[in-house]
Amino acid sequence: MAENSKPWRVDIKGKERILDDFFKVDKYTVSHETFDGGMTPDLPVLVFERGDAVAALLYDPIRRKVIAVNQFRLPTREKGQGRGWLVEAIAGMIKGSREGRPEETPLQCLIREVAEETGYEITQAAPVSTFFSSPGGSTERIHLFYAEVQSTDQKSKGGGVDLGEDIEILEYDVDEFLHKLASGEFEDPKLIIAGQWFQARRGTLRSGISNERSQTFEAVIGGDQGRTPSILGIKTGNISLIKGVDVWVNSENTFMLMDRFFNRSVSATIRTLGAQKHPTNGAILEDTIGNALLQEMGSRAFVKPGTVLNTTSGALEDTHNVRQIFHVAAVRGELGAGLGGSLADIELSIDNLLKAINAAKYGSALLPIFGTGSGRLATGDVVPSLIKHVRAFLEKKTRGSLNKIYILAYSEGEYEILRSVFHSEGLELRPVA
C-alpha cells in the first residue's frame, strides 16, 4: 500500500468504563480499516487510560553528576534486578491529563516533580522525546527531558510529597553512569533513553535559554484614568547580555559583601563587568563598584534587611548603558550561621528598592529573583511575591519616572515559573523584538 493511502477508518461500536479508580480502564468494541482496504471484525479492546507524564535525566554539569531516584515499584518485584526497587529517571503525572484537561504544561510539571522528588530547582531543560510508553494497552505519553541542576539549587531534601512515596536520591559520576548504562544495569526505559541521548550529545548540549542573546517579554500595567501605562516584563539569559536598562539591581546580604569576581552569580557578574580593566589583557585594575559600595557602607559592618544603597555602575555605563547600581540587603547574614532569606525580608526589600529608584528619577530597572541564591529560597515561592509587589507599585504610582521594570530569568526554570505566574495574574506577555 502506498504511503499516502494508509488506512485511517476506525469504527467504535461501544465503550464501557470497567475500572474507575486512580487508574481507569475502558473496554471498547472497535473495528478498523486494514492495509488491503477491508475492515476487521468487531474486536474487544481494553485501554488503560493513564494520562500523560513527564520524566527527566538530571545532570549537574559543575560536579559532573547524573542524578536519578530509587523507589519501590511492586510490578517489578518478580522480574526486576532490584526485587521491587527500581532506579529511575525523575518522573510524574501531568495534573488533569487523565481526564483530558491538563492543568499544567509538561515543563511546569517537570519543575514541580523535580522539586518534590529531589529538592532541586531546574536551571536549564531541553526536550529529548515524546513517546507512548505502552501503545498496545495504554494511552500514556511520556514527555522526556534532559535537565540541568546545581548543588546550590537544592532547596530541600526531596523524597516526594505524595502518600507512600519513599524516594532515595542517587548520584553517579558521569563515567560510572555511562558504564552502568552500557552494562544493562538500568531497567527504567526513561532513564535508558535519556541516558543514550545524553551520551550522544554530551559535548554539544544547549539549553532553551540562549547564552548568546537575551529575549524580552513585556506585559502592560495600568493605563486607565488617563495615566500612562507601565511595563512589567522579563529579560532572559545571563545579565551580561542585557543592555539599555537604566538601573541594575544587586540583591545582597546584610553585610553588603559582593560575590567574588568571575563567579556565576548576578553580584559577581555586576562586579566584574563594572570594574576598570586593562585595555589589552582584560585584567582588573580597579574594583569600581565593589569599592563604591564599601564607601557607601562607611564604618558600618552590616545594615538592616531592606536597606538600599546606590553606587556608580562603573564600566557598565559605557558597555551596557547602565546608569546606576542599586544594592539591596535582601538576605540576612549572621556570624557563624551563614546567609538565609525570608519572604518578609524579600518583600520589604522590593518595596524599599522601588521607592528609591523612583525617587532617583530613573525610568527602567532590572531586578533579579531575590533570595534564591545564597538565601536558598525556592524560586516558586519568591516569584509570586515579587510580581505582586512590583505590579502593586506600578498600579499605585502617581508620580515619578520609573515605568519599566524587568525581572531577570537567568535559566529556563526561572523563565517558566515567571511565565506561569504572569499568566495566573492575568498578565499577557508579548515578545519584544
SSE blueprint and pairings:
Blueprint: E1 10-20, E2 24-32, E3 43-49, E4 52-60, E5 65-72, E6 85-88, E7 90-93, H1 106-118, E8 124-132, E9 141-148, E10 168-173, H2 174-182, H3 189-201, E11 216-221, E12 230-236, E13 247-253, H4 266-274, E14 276-277, E15 284-286, H5 288-297, E16 308-311, H6 316-320, E17 324-334, E18 338-340, H7 343-359, E19 364-367, H8 379-396, E20 404-409, H9 412-424, E21 430-432
Parallel strand pairs: 4-9, 12-20, 13-17, 13-19, 19-20
Antiparallel strand pairs: 1-2, 2-3, 4-5, 4-7, 5-6, 5-10, 8-9, 11-12, 11-21, 14-15, 16-17, 17-18
Helix pairs in contact: 7-8, 8-9
Describe, in short, the structure shown.
By secondary structure, the protein is an alpha+beta fold. Helices cover 25% and strands 30% of the residues.
